[in-house]
Structure formats: C-alpha cells, structure tokens
C-alpha cells in the first residue's frame, strides 16, 4: 500500500497543511526555515550577479580545459573528440561488435594522438593538465578497472581454490587500505617491482593505483548482483548442457552486471572525483590547475568563482555518468 505522503491523490495544499503547517510549532519552524532559505538564496544570487568577478574564468577557460598543453597542438584534442564521435557512430551501426573493444580502441587512439602519434611533436605527460588530465585518467581507469573487477568477482565465486582465495585476499586487502595510501604505493613501489626496462611515468603509476583500488570495489558490486540471481537459473542452464564457463559468461554475468549498474555507476562517479587526489603527486588535474591560476597575482582571492566553476564541471560529468547508467538500466545495452 503506498505511503500517504507519496499518494498521487493528495493535493499539494493538503500535503503542505499536513506536513508543514499541522500545528503551531510546525508552522513556526516552517516559517523560520523558509526565511533562512530565502535569505541564503538571495545573498548567493546577489553575489553571483553583482559581486563575483568572473573574469578569472573567462580569461582562463582554456587553461581550465587543457592546462599546460601547448596551445598550438590543441587541435589534436579536437581531432580526438571528432574521432570519438565517429567511432560511436560506427558502433551504433555495427551493433554486433563488442562495444568494449571500440572503447579500448578509442582510448588508445586518444592517448596515442595526444602524446605524439602520427609522427607529431611529442608532448610529455607532465604537460597534460587541467580537465584534459582529469578525463584521461578517469576514463582510462574505468576502462581498465572494469574487466579486472569482473575477473575478481568471478574468481571470488569460483570453485577453484587458488583463484577464489587469491581474489578474496586481494579484495579484502585493498578494501582495507585508504586510496591515498595505494596511490603513494603505486608511485613509490611500482618502479621497484617492475623490470628495469619498464619505466612508468607518474601519470601511468597514478592510473595503475586507481585501477588496482577500484577493481576491488567493482568486484564486490558485481558479486552483489550475482548473489541476487536465483539459484534455479544455474541449475536450468546446467540442465541444458552448458559448461560452467558458458553459464557464467552467457547467463549469470549479463544479469549480474545489469543488476549492479547503479552501484557500478556510483563507483565510477567516485573514481572521477578521486582524481582530485592526483594533485598531491604534482599532477595538475582540474583542482591542481585551479590552484595554479589562483596563485597568479591578478586572481588572488577569487576562490569562490574558481571553485564554483570547477564544481560545476565535476557535477556536469557526474550527471552525465548518472544519465548513462539510467539509460543502461532502461535499455539493458
């Protein structure tokens, strides 16, 4: 039976009278809180319209977007956006092609072209800053952490002791550590354990840390969806003669992933915001380039305008991920 508060038959006047003005105390509390909201809203609107100095944004908008990337090479970023849209269009036409393959190709082409592919001038990764760095790190980490999370989730449910115990130990160990600690270990420890011929710069080590951390949480999100699937589906698939690997790949995982979409989307949104920690390792992502702009004498004290702007950019991309997750939930594709 639906709650009376959610009943569609309740008129707005009746809902207000019942929930906000039912007694004298409720009426007084509603008036005080309402006046407080109006006062704060009016002060905020007055600051936005008459006091804020938005020149710090209009004069540096390109620095927020691409940071210290050479301006004469910025056309590569536009070209990668066009290529990405073309790959998306091709993917819509060839629906039988695995979309993850297209995403991997797109990310690889983007990094290759921005870095110096096609015999172009090499742009070192320490110049990849601003929103460009935030998006590259976030997308690369999401693309790489997702398959690793699936492997760990399947391993934790596996009947093979070595795979199951290995996945369990990894998940429990990583989930017990703070992200900042894993990022520090990735920066310091990875060069020590890799072969001497392998040289990872700070950007790749940061991506490795985010992938290792988020794969453990993604595995648990997917395992939660797996647990929601009725046991009868395992038995029905086995009765049809499917091997256990086909049962997992064709019956269980697609359903588990669809059930887990809200949790996975939440994890990806958290990953996008966690990229702000990279400024601790001298990687000037969006918040790092904001601090660099605020350090200029002309823009001292413009914290409100700058952080409100980068907060809007974070919200915009997080809202995009939320919209994408709702689309996946509704279409199942």
Would you write up a description of this structure?
With 333 residues, the protein is mostly helical. The protein has helices at residues 12-19, 24-51, 55-58, 61-66, 75-93, 99-115, 130-157, 161-175, 179-193, 202-227, 231-239, 244-259, 261-274, 286-294, 303-331.
Task: Draw up the topology in text.
Layout: H1 12-19, H2 24-51, H3 55-58, H4 61-66, H5 75-93, H6 99-115, H7 130-157, H8 161-175, H9 179-193, H10 202-227, H11 231-239, H12 244-259, H13 261-274, H14 286-294, H15 303-331
Report the order of strands and helices: HHHHHHHHHHHHHHH
Structural class: mainly alpha
- Tally of contiguous helical segments: 15
Taken from the alpha-carbon principal axes, the silhouette is globular
Summarize the biggest pleated sheet.
none
Beta strands, count: 0
Q: What do the pLDDT scores average to?
A: 85
Q: Please indicate the percent range of residues in DSSP E strands (runs of 2 or more).
A: under 5%
Rg: 25 Å
Q: What is the percent of helical residues?
A: over 70%
* CA(first)-CA(last) distance: 33 Å
The low-pLDDT segments are: none
Features:
73% helix; 0% strand; 333 residues; mainly alpha; 15 helices; globular
Quick recap:
The protein is 73% helix and 0% strand. The chain contains 15 helices and no strands. It is globular and about 70 Å long.
